[in-house]
Design brief:
By secondary structure, the chain is α/β, with parallel strands linked by helices. It is built from ten helices and seven strands. It has one domain: Alpha/Beta hydrolase fold, catalytic domain (Rossmann fold), CATH 3.40.50.1820. It is globular and about 50 Å long. The relative contact order is 0.16. The model has no long low-confidence stretch (mean pLDDT 89).
């Protein structure tokens, strides 16, 4: 484990008045940062009475830790989430996307949580089957992701990556801003993701857990999402018309409404 990282970027959107609803803590996926939740999800949930927070993991966004990112593991990212969760007014519902879902799963396996939502999660077999599938069908994707450098994102790189993360309906303005918030990812964290098959499940049958996927996601496919849901003994919700970065898609409201519907079932 790396030393504690004290400087973690947190973006937030708060309700206009007092609310009895639990705070929400959003955890981004690989190569991303907290901004990915900011255009739509944070203000939308705040308008419905939820204090909505999103952190940038160490080495991502404006958080510290860039100099040690290459050796940061999922356990270090887990510590970042736990630290930010501990600073909130009450225990939050944890909401992770892709790699962020894996981090949330680590936490859920170790202690009770108020609730946990897994959006476009990796399957229980881990990252390797996904990488193998993409290597066989889309070699250009792996080549481009292996050399992601936010300071040198060319039009060719963005064009190659777009079909994997976005539908063709995403506005150009969102695409341009998303490109500014792409980050290199830790090789150690990517290695850790290949070991997900061996992760423990919660020790209790009471699992306030929600699993959501996108029908047009070519990275974490609907079958991957259903496998994760089965791993946790819950049903998966699969939404049509959305790609991997579903929180930025034109149909993001459908994902937000599905998540809100589940949140309303929590005690």
């Amino acid at each position: 484990m790396l030393p504690f990282e004290s400087h973690l970027e947190v973006r937030k959107s708060l309700p206009a008045g007092r609310s009895r609803k639990p705070p929400l803590l959003f955890v981004h996926g690989g190569y991303c940062d907290a901004w990915f939740w900011e255009p739509y999800f944070l203000p939308w949930f705040a308008a419905r009475g939820y204090a909505a927070y999103a952190l940038s993991l160490r080495g991502h966004g404006m958080s510290g830790g860039a100099e040690t990112l290459f050796v940061a593991g999922l356990g270090d990212y887990e510590a970042d989430v736990e630290h930010v969760a501990g600073t909130l007014e009450s225990p939050p519902v944890l909401i992770g996307h892709s790699m962020g879902s894996a981090i949330v799963e680590l936490i859920v396996a170790k202690r009770p949580v108020r609730g946990a939502a897994l959006l476009a999660p990796l399957p229980p077999a881990g990252l390797l089957p996904i990488a193998s599938r993409l290597a066989a069908s889309h070699t250009n994707y792996l080549m481009q992701m292996g050399a992601v450098d936010p300071s040198r994102l060319s039009a060719d790189v963005l064009q190659a990556l777009r079909p994997f993360y976005f539908s063709d309906k995403v506005p150009e303005k969102i695409l341009a801003e998303a490109a500014r918030h792409l980050n290199p990812e830790s090789p150690r964290a990517l290695f850790d993701l290949s070991l997900r098959l061996h992760w423990a499940l919660p020790q209790t049958d009471h699992r306030p857990l929600f699993v959501l996927g996108a029908e047009d996601d070519v990275i974490c496919t609907p079958d991957d999402v259903r496998a994760t849901a089965a791993h946790h003994n819950v049903e998966a919700t699969i939404l049509p018309g959305l790609a991997h970065l579903l929180m930025l898609e034109p149909g993001w409201q459908n994902a937000a409404k599905a998540l809100e519907g589940w949140l309303e079932t929590l005690d």
